[in-house]
Specification:
CATH topology of the largest domain: Rossmann fold
CATH class of the largest domain: Alpha Beta
Largest sheet: 6 strands, parallel
Structural class: alpha/beta
Number of helices: 14
Oligomer: single chain
Strand order of the largest sheet: 9-8-7-10-11-12
Shape: globular
CATH superfamily of the largest domain: Glycogen Phosphorylase B
Strand content: 15-25%
Helix content: 40-55%
Low-confidence stretches: none
Distance between the termini: 20 Å
Amino acid sequence: MEFFIYFPRYSFFAEQVTANKIVVHEYSKGRGFSLVVVRRLSSLIRSGRYDILLSYLRAPNIYSELSCAFLGSTRLDVSERGSHFGDGSWAETLIARNLHRLADHIVANSVSHESWRRHRFPWMTGRLTWIDNGLAIESLQAEPFLPREARDLRLIAIGRVGPGKNIATLIEALQLVSDRHGWVPQVTWVGRREEATTAERAYCQRVDDLLDSLPDVRRSWRWLGERNDVPKLLKEHHALIHPTLHEGLPNAICEALATGRPVLASDVCDNGLLVSDGERGFLFDPKNPASIGTSIERLIALDGHGWMRMAESARTYAKAVLSAERFVSAYEDLFLTLAPLREARV
């Protein structure tokens, strides 16, 4: 296995890549689409005689599809990791999806997105696969952690600070809880602020202004920014709250389940499968502050037995469905289907 990357300044998994002595081919590109990336990747594919090219996310998929367009010996598997609810302009989306005609196979990491694509693009049928995300479950320890009393409840939210994460509605829901009970659970938000566009900056300002106007909620709210110690942070909180408007398969929920934490989540996309209302947490309507508030109250109402049952169900589900072993096995089976092993060379 080898990697081709075009943003070498981002080194998210450099330590693991180096430890496993994986060859990395680097090209540093600037902003915007680059035909040089297509040329470099095409040249690498021709010289390397690779059996499979796997790409993730929209831009890498486009580069890979254009690079493999006339190189039939290398099979191409592209993977979409989000939801169609997060699509940009219709023209850009239509071009990107129709470029999948150049791919040998297409993977989604959520049932909802795979089903939508099969319905929206019938020509993809036969080339579609759903493969869940995979977690190193054993590295995520599940230690029971119950609040001593309702007022001690600590919730963690994980995701970038932007419109799709629905932070303003969560804040409004917390104020409803305060109005009804006279207190607000502690909320820690982990994730970078997205302020690259005017709309993103405006949303972040709206969230700040809303918090400032609700002092009870503001006192219980903590921004942590981007962090690399999420497993530790999950262990320090009682439950995850995930108010997003749309998702693919959210890693935040998967990691929380693996850590044995109940999850309060929007009833969108695959969240219902992951959480299963009342089994591993509670679902809510993300556009309705009262619905979010009710889910928090349902969590508060759990007794010790109910809390432990939910925590155990979360961990058991993660081990059965979200393990790295299951993920790897699914990809291995797919790769061998696309490109059966060549005879060993002497």
